[in-house]
Amino acid sequence: MQILVIEDEKRVADLIKRGLEDQDYTVELSHDGTTGKALALQRDYDIIIMDVVLPGINGIDLCKEVRLVKPDIPIIMLTALGTTDDKVEGLDAGADDYLVKPFDFRELQARIRALTKRQAKGLPQTPSILRVADLELDAGTFVVTRGGKEINLTPKEFRLLLYMMQNKGRVLSRAEIAEKVWETIFDTGTNFIDVYINYLRKKIDKDYPVKLIHTRAGIGFIFKEGS
Question: For the chain, how far is it from start to end, CA to CA, in angstroms?
Fold first, then answer.
């Protein structure tokens, strides 16, 4: 497996490189965003690990640029910034996962395994068009409409809505959503799942009399018509 690590702290980069190579991964290093971008776009990697704070191009902008050209490559962001807003910003930029420094190297290994496993099996099979009430999601064209009006969603919002519609009528815990939508372990110290649920509510429920996303206090969320 070919891994690109973009990290400006050379000591951290070298530690990651040595640890991954001990697990039989092939690792290439870049210490700035500009060089990292060139490598990411010109060469084929199985996964990219990048810091957020980078010289040249910061990790958020770099992630967005890589996503435009290579929408399916798994990306893990590393950062010393651990607030919910920071995590949401990284995920919105297109990152698949997010690790806060300092981290246990075993956790990085677990995240890599989870992401590559997802790549191998692909997205779960689903009918091309899903409907609940007057909400329609086309999994083939990534178009979402409600009452005939198109709704603009980010990739993460779309994936969350897709999973909820696939499991309509069933209560989904935050841990399940984190595992199935983000392929990560739910961190009880952050509320990023609730943040994304609120994003969806504003876009698909706020202006409509029939609400589709409902909270089950202490348990999770359920997607269905009515209360």
Answer: 48
